[in-house]
User: What shape does this take?
Amino acid sequence: MTELIVRDLRPEFGSEVIGLDPSIPLDPQTRQKLQALFDTRGILVFRDFGAADIKVQTYISEILGGGAVDPDDLSIFEMLVSNREERGGAPFGRLLFHSDMMWIESGCTVLSLFGQTIAQPAIPTLFVSAAHGWASLPADLRARVEGLSAVTCQDATAQRGGSIPDDVLVSTFEEEVLLTLPIGYSHPRTGETLLYICPQMTHHIEGLDHEESEALLEALFDHYYAPDQILEHHWREGDLVVWDNIALQHARPNVSMQGPARTLRKVMIPNPTKFATGLATYSKVGD
Assistant: This one.
């Protein structure tokens, strides 16, 4: 068994794992330890993991999601989040907090990013815990949302009106997809209750008019994304960050096409060709 050192990044969630050999397959004891850590901490950071090619990244992402994976039988699909690469997704703009493919109930469960090309100063990725967001809800807010459901779509920035900065990225799809789930949503793998709303993709709260819905969402957002609830990951080349895409949300400040090179290799579990709803085109709120 590989001897691992674990350093918690926040009291509620997030750990850095030191000492993992990126050779695969991992031995059963190491695999079980990482899976248990992932279920309790939600996001694992492996610094200076330069030997992690797309196969290693996919393998680790798969096993952290609970899969017993044959490294020679992986479903590999590489994406890039980049302000330099022609095929890079989300190439510019600010991303508000969200989970990827949040509008599909059986969509992306595990997400990972690898620092492929990182020039400094690098724009960080920000994380919050949906489980902690729910567990720490003030009693008055919890009473207001008990039993309510929220409608999620691919991009809800237009719903937020003037509260959205001009540099926020807008994703447009050919076909709109909507999903309604309880605001207090039970994690399908861990059973934890999650605060399942976000500014980037929550269209409205079901049963409320627009003004009531936005007022309640803003109160929830103020609690959920308070500065002292956020974990910031500051990128270096060779970083591998893997997180539970249902239990955590992520965001980023504005990325400029003219700014420092920032190319992150992205892996989604399961392979997104199994559930993706089409390619997005990008603009900004201020365009």
